[in-house]
Write a structure and sequence with these properties.
This protein is of the alpha+beta class. It has one domain (about 40-205, about 215-220). It is built from ten helices and four strands; from the N terminus they run αααααααββββααα. A four-stranded mixed beta sheet has the order 1-2-3-4, with helices on one face. Strand 3 and strand 4 (about 160) form a beta hairpin. Helix 5 (about 60-75) crosses helix 7 and helix 5 (about 60-75) packs across helix 8 (about 170-185). The chain is globular and about 50 Å long. The model has no long low-confidence stretch (mean pLDDT about 90).
Amino acid sequence: MLKVHPDLNSLKERMRRTYAYRNTFMTTAKAEEIIEKFPALKLPKILLWEMKEQFLVEADRRMVTELVRMATKMVQRASMCDLKDCCQRAINACLDDSVRRGLIRDAAILLLPSIFREDSSLLYTLLEEPSVPTPAIMLHNTHEGNPLQAQRITLYLDGIQVLTEDSSMDKSYAMSALMSLYFVFAVQYPKELRKTLIFIERFVLGIKDHSVVPISVKRLYNCVGSGE
């Protein structure tokens, strides 16, 4: 872990050997204690690999392929607000089709809590480090306060930064890592963001469990699930 480029295969092998012990340890330990004992989980690639190993979900891949087909309709369904106006101006100003699709996907992530009238500050923040106990994204160096144009992204849990910076971390990648934090660290969804996270879990990541999906979450998917 002290190397500039850690050997991921070596880290994965060590993580496999500690799997049983980690699962027991993480049920009672705080995030800071977990990260101190298993520092490989600070690497987004290891965290996403762990998500795949434990839950058979390639979160980063599905976050792109599944969300992109729903993103346009999700943005359309979001009520008009300063955030939507800010995102829409950035999207309209983009002339590159590929980049524009990425902006629409990112806007869908940022606007999803507002569709369910939930607290977006439990998902991401722009101005100060998150102090909430659940996983949260911090968007750094935004241009004129536009979250779509953040130049750097970090992730927090229990109010501390838990993931090292990754040059490839865009907002969908960060959302994949955030969902992986919830699952790998066994964190319960906060009730003020529950519908947003259930939508991502069930209809983006494709994780099907036996819990009841709220009617409003099903309705949104019925409206946007067909894509453009």
